[in-house]
Protein: Ribosomal-protein-alanine N-acetyltransferase
Amino acid sequence: MTGFSGASPPIRIAEMGLGDLPEVLEIEKASHVEPWDERFFREEFERPHSRLLVALKQATEVAGYICFWMVADEVQIFNLAVAPGERRRGVGRSLLLEALKIACRNKARLALLEVRRGNTAARRLYESVGFRPAGIRPGYYGVGREAAVLMELEMDRAWRSRWFAGSDPDPTEGVSWSLRHP
Structure:
């Protein structure tokens, strides 16, 4: 489990369970122009390479979530969202860094994601942890045919030292998040 004290009350990162879906779906609808439906999330629970984490406040209230895939030596971030009332408090950064730490422990060296060109808040978050634009996909998002910015992050030794100093993301160590089952 990872704690975050930038928001009040403290945030805890945990594995997403099926019981979290009602709150996750509310955050999803409030956060995305083209939100995933429950079926998409349920499919992610079944994929062996998919990981879903939630940020919890007061032990059970979902403040945000992230969905990512571990594929070979890469991590692909597919969905990250924070409840409107919890934004700009470090919840998204905590989720992102926890996903990247798990990826490093699983020997990932490259992180990839796509973000709407117009989502400047998300782009700033990603850039603040080292992601850099790597390309554009014109008309990628259906509604409004908005372009996607492809972003990538090389998680080399220097990057890992900067972000995980004192908590080495060595793949031989145990995970730092709590398991919760549906």
In short: The chain has five helices and eight strands. The chain has a mean pLDDT of 86.
